[in-house]
Amino acid sequence: MLRLFVVLLLAVHAVPAQPVVVGTGPAKPFPIRIAPGQVTYIYARIDKTVPNVKAEGYPLPLTLGGVSLWIGTRAGEPVRRMPLFSVEPVYPCDGVPPPPDCSPLAAVRFQVPFEFLTVDYPEGEGIEFGRIWIEVDGKRGAPISFFLPRSNAEFVTLCRGFVPAYAFSGVCPPALLHADGTPTWRRWPLPRPGEVLTFYAYGLGLPNPWPTGKFPTSGEPAPPSTESWNFLGIGPLRFVLDFRANARPSRLPGPRSSTLLIEPLYAGPVPGLVGLYQVNFRLPEPPVPLTPCTEVESNVTISFAASSLGIPFCMQTEP
């Protein structure tokens, strides 16, 4: 399974007695941005040997290796522990193997609960919504604050392990796939008009209404789904294709002669998995002439209003 791994490079410090959150992925602290149902990481220094343990099944456990993550809002909601996928060591230092004096961080992969978000969303971007803290063997760490956008897309990349990179780079591009599952990044044949492509993301937010007629359950695999979801505050998922060479992703991609608004063939959960969304779309004819990818890094870019990240890729320019 393709997974999203993003590591924040951090300085080495002495291990404190109190567990301390020192980074999150893929955002830099603090506050962090998380959406309902989002799957992401917190990195912390803990006063014990960092366990290397993964959840063995569903529902996801609330404690792994003595580690728990708690979340609470400022609106009087009860605090909750968050479902955990894994707790594992990761070294924030250069070198393989890492230097002897480099102590590992605990990388905790978790899902933001759906259930506690029963209050109204705060108005406007950048409004602090609550606190998250780590607890290790009953010892509570200092809380960090978070913002709660309705959607906070993080794209699944081609990397299968930790890489020392913030967001994505040429060595760890987002996974945009052909229909047979092969990646499109600098691979031949390049995508052509009319072809159906697929990418995966976390953090697209809360479905509205919930397709099965009941509220989603955190830590549980998604049910089978054949119809695209509507998302709270967004409606049907749409995104922009920008057909300029080396175009940068934009949260608010304005209309241009080089852009097209795309409504996917399918945008919804991956059945049997937790918090992962799949987006299938048909690649249209370019509205402008394309620059050949022998001359540029990319000639098409996917941009989401819900994310400052995007997916650049190369499209075939010859018949």
Strand content of the residues, in percent?
Answer: 25-35%
The helix content is under 10%
Gyration radius, in Å: 20 Å
Number of helices: 0
Overall outline: globular
Going by helix content, strand content and strand pairing, the class is mainly beta
Number of strands: 22
- Characterize the main sheet: 6 strands, mixed
Write up what this structure looks like.
It contains no helices and 22 strands. The chain folds into 2 domains: 20-149, Immunoglobulins (Immunoglobulin-like, Sandwich); 152-319, no CATH class. It has strands spanning 20-25, 32-33, 39-45, 53-54, 67-73, 80-81, 84-90, 105-111, 128-136, 139-140, 144-147, 154-155, 176-177, 196-202, 230-231, 235-236, 239-242, 259-262, 266-269, 277-282, 300-303, 310-313. The two termini are 33 Å apart. With 319 residues, the chain is mainly beta. The radius of gyration is 20 Å and the shape is globular. Helix content is 0%, strand content 30%. The strands form 5 sheets. Strands 2, 5, 6, 9, 10 and 11 form a 6-stranded mixed β-sheet that branches. A 5-stranded antiparallel β-sheet has the order 1-3-8-7-4, with no helix packed on it.
Task: Give a topology summary.
Layout lengths: L19 E6 L6 E2 L5 E7 L7 E2 L12 E7 L6 E2 L2 E7 L14 E7 L16 E9 L2 E2 L3 E4 L6 E2 L20 E2 L18 E7 L27 E2 L3 E2 L2 E4 L16 E4 L3 E4 L7 E6 L17 E4 L6 E4 L6
Parallel strand pairs: 2-11
Antiparallel strand pairs: 1-3, 3-8, 4-7, 5-6, 5-9, 7-8, 9-10, 9-11, 12-14, 13-14, 14-20, 15-16, 17-18, 17-21, 19-20, 21-22
